[in-house]
Design brief:
Layout lengths: L10 H13 L2 H8 L3 H15 L4 E3 L5 E3 L1 H28 L5 E6 L6 H13 L4 E6 L3 H9 L5 E5 L10 E16 L4 H8 L3 H6 L5 E5 L6 H11 L4 E6 L2 H9 L5 E4 L8 H4 L2 E18 L6 H21 L6 E2 L6
Parallel strand pairs: 3-4, 3-5, 7-8, 10-11
Antiparallel strand pairs: 1-2, 5-10, 6-9, 6-10
Helix pairs in contact: 1-2, 1-3, 1-4, 5-12
Length: about 325
């Protein structure tokens, strides 16, 4: 391995290598980074040539597996890039006139109220701050962006961070209960009858025989499917969508029922809220947390933003998530 000023491992190569590993393939890494596949392959080849070792194997489907050297350099790259980002952000906070930069990742469920409050808190703490919000279809996608240093705040399902406790400050935000959402015009007696398999209830209210399934690796969908198989086994997935917002849109039109997290409720217009009933399913609940790189806790502005976001989530948002007509699902089983 020849070393010299013009022949060395670069941060760009390490970022590309890490992106390929985190994404799982060169194709997915190209979409994430905005680089072409040939460019990524070229940079990986240069890195392997300099190190004198193969780092990844590509199988027939294009997925990558790490070699022993790849395992070593993936851990080393993650550590080096983390330290580099920490140094840049610490420098900006201590020695430059640049303002804080908050890059918040959330799923579409938390559009509106939560994101708007996060932006306001950021500007309250630092009037010159820059605030950016990035969507991800699910918590796994948001965590992936966090690992790739595209975010510094990530509002996600706690289970998506099981292996990340050493790198991030993980702060509880709220408990998010999944609700069975039904059109408001369906009376309670018809709901109870449908849950007992009464065919007349399904004939009178056809929406009870249809539900919305989410695709795009929605983590709660398997549990949702199990629930319908158990409680409404004759219902079918006539509709599909990428987000819970789509599921609620269809249900509010009286076309179906759906499962939806209560965290979406504060972001819905009243014209839609009036068309829905919500029945909480406690055993499908999930813990929502905020993940932030640990080194940012040493910078007062970021620590204050996190603390105020936690207070808002616990004291305000958690209460706003309870609809006026909310009932536990178990009330329908009495």
């Amino acid at each position: 391995m020849e070393r010299g000023l013009l022949n060395r491992v670069t941060l760009k190569q390490l970022e590309i290598f890490r992106s390929v590993v985190v994404s799982g393939s060169i194709t997915k890494a190209a979409r994430r980074t905005g680089l072409s596949q040939p460019s990524i392959s070229q940079q990986l080849a240069k890195l392997e040539e300099f190190l004198g070792a193969q780092l990844i194997h590509r199988n027939r489907s294009g997925q990558v597996d790490l070699t022993a050297a790849g395992e070593f350099w993936f851990k080393s790259a993650s550590d080096l890039l983390w330290r580099y980002d920490a140094a840049i952000e610490s420098h900006a906070a201590r020695f430059s006139e640049d303002a804080a930069q908050v890059r918040l990742g959330t799923t579409p469920t938390l559009r509106g109220r939560f994101v708007g409050t996060a932006a306001r808190i950021t500007l309250d703490v630092d009037p010159n701050a820059r605030f950016e919000q990035v969507w991800g279809l699910n918590s796994g996608e948001i965590v992936e962006r966090l690992r790739m240093h595209q975010l510094n705040f990530a509002l996600v399902n706690k289970t998506s961070l099981e292996q990340e406790h050493t790198s991030y400050k993980i702060t509880p935000m709220f408990r998010d209960t999944i609700a069975w959402v039904v059109p408001a015009e369906i009376p309670t007696d018809a709901l109870r009858a449908a849950l007992k398999g009464d065919a007349e209830a399904f004939q009178t209210y056809p929406a009870l025989g249809r539900y919305v399934a989410l695709f795009g690796d929605a983590p709660l969908q398997p549990g949702s499917d199990d629930w319908y198989r158990h409680y409404l086994p004759t219902a079918s997935t006539v509709f599909g969508g990428m987000t819970y917002s789509v599921a609620v849109d269809l249900t509010s039109e009286g076309l179906s029922t759906a499962h939806c997290p209560l965290s979406l409720y504060p972001n819905l217009p009243q014209s839609q809220v009036r068309k829905l009933r919500w029945f909480g399913i406690e055993w499908l609940s999930r813990e929502v947390v905020m993940a932030m790189p640990k080194h940012l806790m040493s910078i007062p502005a970021y620590a204050e933003i996190l603390g105020r976001l936690q207070s808002f989530a616990e004291e305000d948002y958690a209460l706003e998530m309870v609809p006026d007509n909310y009932q536990p699902f178990t009330d329908l089983l009495d």
